[in-house]
Amino acid sequence: MLNIEHLLTEQRYLALDEISTVFLAIGIAQYTIYHFKYRKYKNSAIAKVIDYVEKYYDKEDYYVYMPIVQFTNNQNQKIQSILNIELDDQEYPFGKEIAIKYNDKNLEYVLKDMKIKKFVYKNSLAIGMILMIISILYLHLNK
């Protein structure tokens, strides 16, 4: 009877260990993909389009919409800025997140749809590590 309980405990540990290993592997793979694919956006801030400025050009006789974006810089200050680019309001609606690359001298922008975000990868890594720790503790506590 004791042997069967020990086997069941070991089976539970192995299942938990496999799940945690899978989460850890997925997290490491995703974080690696993020690091190599988006490393050029390392100093970027995620900005939200909060409004549009309508600008009229007399010579060409047409309107353009320049987005007003809000983002947080390195000193945790909220900054609002008008991007000097032409955008259609259907292309980048309110609340859409874009990546803005900036430095001290001027505001450079890089438009990128940031559907894949850094915190997703960090969370999957954290879930894998937590599950790994739980499986190790489970093994040692049930010996």
What features would you highlight for this structure?
single chain, 143 residues, alpha+beta, 2 domains, 4-stranded antiparallel sheet, 4 strands
Short description:
This protein has 143 residues and is an alpha+beta fold. Helices cover 42% and strands 24% of the residues.
What does the model show?
- Keywords: Membrane, Transmembrane, Transmembrane helix.
- This is DUF3592 domain-containing protein.
- The chain crosses the membrane at residues 12-34, 119-141.
- With 143 residues, the chain is an alpha+beta fold.
- It has 2 domains: 2-38 and 118-141; 42-101.
- It is 42% helix and 24% strand.
- The protein has helices at 2-37, 118-141; strands at residues 44-57, 62-72, 78-82, 97-101.
- The protein has a 4-stranded antiparallel sheet, with no helix packed on it.
- A hairpin with a 4-residue loop joins strand 1 (44-57) and strand 2 (62-72).
- The longest helix is centred in the N-terminal third of the chain and has 36 residues, at 2-37.
Please outline the helices and strands.
Elements: H1 2-37, E1 44-57, E2 62-72, E3 78-82, E4 97-101, H2 118-141
Antiparallel strand pairs: 1-2, 1-4, 2-3
Helix pairs in contact: 1-2
Task: Provide the spatial order of strands within the biggest beta sheet.
Answer: 3-2-1-4
Taken as a percent bin, the fraction of beta residues is 15-25%
Write down how many β-strands occur, each being a DSSP E stretch of 2 or more residues: 4
Overall body shape: rod-shaped
Unreliably modeled segments: 103-116
Secondary-structure-derived class: alpha+beta
Instruction: State mean pLDDT (0 to 100 scale).
Output: 63
Distance between the termini: 15 Å
| Structural domain tally | 2
For the CA atoms, what is the radius of gyration? 24 Å
Main β-sheet, in a few words?
4 strands, antiparallel
Strand/helix succession: HEEEEH
Helix content percent band: 40-55%
Number of helices: 2
